[in-house]
Every structure is written in C-alpha cells, then in structure tokens.
Amino acid sequence: HVQLVESGGGSVQAGGSLRVSCALSGDTTSGYCMGWFRQAPGKEREKVASIDSVGSTSYTDSVKGRLTISNDNAKNTLYLHMDSLKPEDTAMYYCVADRPFNGYCSRPVVDFAYRGQGTQVTVS
Predict the structure, then answer these.
(1) How confident is the model at residue 52 (pLDDT cuts 50, 70, 90)?
(2) Is 90 exceeded by the pLDDT of residue 92?
(3) For the CA atoms of the chain, what is the radius of gyration?
(4) Which sign does the torsion angle of CA 40, 45, 47, 50 carry?
(5) CA separation, residue 53 to residues 17, 18, 70, 74 (Å)
C-alpha cells in the first residue's frame, strides 16, 4: 500500500526559497511517475512539475527556472526546491505518484493514483 507524506512547507517572503519533501512508503520511488500539483483557495488544481522513472522532468511554464523537482530513489524521497518565490506560488502543494503504463507516465499529474495529504506554502 503506497503512502506519500509531505513535509517542509511554511511561510516565506517573496524572493525567498523553500524545499518541500515527499517520503514514499510501501514501495520504492524507482519505476514510478512522480510529481507535484498545487491548489490555491478557489482555484483549480495545477500541475507544478513531474519526473518520470528515467529522470526526465516537466514543469508548468509559470515555475520554469524557479522550481526544481528531483528524486532520490535511495531515500524513496521526492523533492521540490523552490527559489525566487512569488505570492502567486501560495497554495497547498501535493505530492503524487503513479505507475507508468507501457513505460509512459500517461495520466495528467493531477490525476495520478496516489496523493499525499499536502503541505502549505505561503509567500508574502
């Protein structure tokens, strides 16, 4: 039974940095599609970033160059390092995971099968 637990959120001033982490238990992160999405109050869920089983990454345009996704398979942990944070980055951030289908991460990140409880990031 796969479980995801996020940590590391908090409050930061605009221009600052944060790193959020996601520990996966019940399996190993290698071989999974992993990602982050976020949701602000009154807004739709929005993909932030994803990483596939061979380490290829993808980002939504608004975070390119500022947020970096990485995966430490030895620690079964996914990270999202956030630099140059903006107030519009304020949201609940969710870690997600999914098994590839025929070797591909075929589902949208917001529809991945496994999701953590979320961690709040507030930028003022």
Answers:
(1) very high
(2) yes
(3) 13
(4) positive
(5) 26, 25, 11, 13
